[in-house]
């Protein structure tokens, strides 16, 4: 059977849809103009990123000529969000090609227990969903908002800070656990511990010296700990100056509210509020704190929150919500929480459920505060 048979000859706009299935070794490329039964599928496996991207562009031009498409035909490319992030999208947009990054979890899949899954089948499904999405069937896939290069790069400031803090705690905890195996309860948080260890003053519970192998390992841990602490100190000194001016202004505005510290404000400004939201529902959906009901027939189940979006922001908002209750007790949010949890007694589960709603409402209130300058109801600013 010929796969280039023409099916659509009406006045519908001709669009060349292209989808990419990305992998480290090779990319699968599917092309479809809507006028034939099956899309064309090719593989590009150049070792360099620029050469592989150019191979995709060459395939697009070759199929325009093969299918007798106009030189200026609308070309739309899509691929799933993943470890390649957004550089492909930006490179195609610079060349005047429309590109969309798709949320992989939004693509419908068969619910059979066993189903065929290959890169070829995935890229075909992706290009078919892209054509349906372009026709207006928005439930076929959800498009990810692409940040600017500056917004994407600025996130690394707070993420690197978090990783360094985690690394410091891991080194200290590892050293403490190694010492406990020999009955040594010395405090490893003190900076003098490395010097005492080098002078062989750290001993076992009975005063005998540490085994040479364990002592050497602890010395290596101290070196790595010192390097992580040094990098963290340098980052703390330069972090605020490295934040772009718009994000710094948003951070300063958030930090004026009681219960929000400078670090948390910076993380929110860089991780969440670089986006433009149209309404409060978009804010709640973005942070993944909206409920997901399951209502089918006689079955009605609350599945909890969606947990979509940025997990770092979601964890930060939960922590910030607890601080809000402590430092903003007169606010409408704190009073709402107290009314909802009144009478629950020691039931901590009810409080943990209610704090999720507080975090969602707090995110919406902070968005309105930054967008319109409306201070959350009942909230107080820090004194000058």
UniProtKB/TrEMBL annotation:
GO biological process: DNA transposition
Recorded superkingdom: Bacteria
Gene Ontology terms for molecular function: DNA binding; transposase activity
One Pfam assignment: Transposase_20
Residue ranges of domain Transposase IS116/IS110/IS902 C-terminal in the record: 254-331
Record-linked PANTHER family: PUTATIVE TRANSPOSASE FOR IS117-RELATED, TRANSPOSASE FOR INSERTION SEQUENCE ELEMENT IS1111A
Protein name: IS110 family transposase
Species: Paraburkholderia panacisoli
């Amino acid at each position: 059977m010929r796969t280039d048979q023409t099916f659509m000859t009406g006045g519908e706009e001709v669009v060349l849809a292209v989808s990419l299935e990305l992998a480290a070794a090779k990319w699968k490329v599917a092309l479809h103009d809507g006028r034939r039964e099956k899309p064309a599928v090719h593989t590009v496996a150049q070792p360099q990123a620029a050469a592989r991207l150019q191979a995709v562009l060459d395939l697009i031009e070759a199929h325009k000529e093969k299918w007798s498409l106009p030189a200026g035909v609308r070309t739309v490319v899509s691929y799933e969000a993943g470890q390649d992030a957004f550089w492909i999208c930006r490179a195609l947009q610079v060349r005047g090609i429309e590109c969309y990054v798709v949320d992989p979890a939004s693509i419908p899949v068969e619910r059979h227990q066993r189903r065929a899954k290959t890169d070829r089948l995935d890229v075909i499904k992706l290009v078919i969903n892209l054509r349906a999405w372009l026709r207006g069937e928005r439930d076929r896939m959800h498009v990810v908002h692409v940040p600017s290069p500056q917004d994407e790069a600025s996130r690394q400031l707070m993420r690197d800070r978090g990783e360094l803090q985690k690394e410091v705690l891991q080194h200290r905890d590892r050293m403490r656990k190694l010492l406990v195996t020999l009955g040594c309860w010395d405090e490893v948080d003190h900076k003098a511990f490395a010097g005492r260890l080098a002078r062989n003053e750290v001993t076992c519970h009975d005063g005998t010296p540490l085994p040479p192998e364990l002592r050497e390992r602890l010395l290596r841990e101290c070196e790595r700990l010192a390097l992580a602490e040094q990098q963290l100190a340098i980052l703390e000194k330069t972090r605020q100056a490295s934040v772009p001016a718009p994000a710094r202004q948003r951070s300063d505005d958030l930090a004026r509210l009681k219960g929000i510290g400078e670090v948390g404000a910076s993380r929110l400004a860089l991780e969440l509020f670089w986006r433009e939201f149209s309404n409060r529902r978009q804010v709640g959906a973005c942070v993944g704190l909206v409920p997901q009901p399951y209502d089918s027939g006689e079955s009605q189940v609350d599945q909890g929150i969606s947990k979509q979006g940025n997990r770092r922001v979601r964890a930060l908002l939960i922590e910030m919500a607890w601080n809000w209750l402590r430092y903003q007790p007169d606010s409408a949010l704190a009073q709402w929480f107290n009314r909802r949890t009144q009478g629950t007694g020691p039931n901590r589960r009810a409080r943990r459920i209610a704090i999720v709603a507080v975090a969602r409402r707090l995110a919406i209130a902070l968005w309105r505060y930054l967008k319109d300058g409306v201070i959350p109801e009942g909230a107080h600013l820090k004194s000058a």
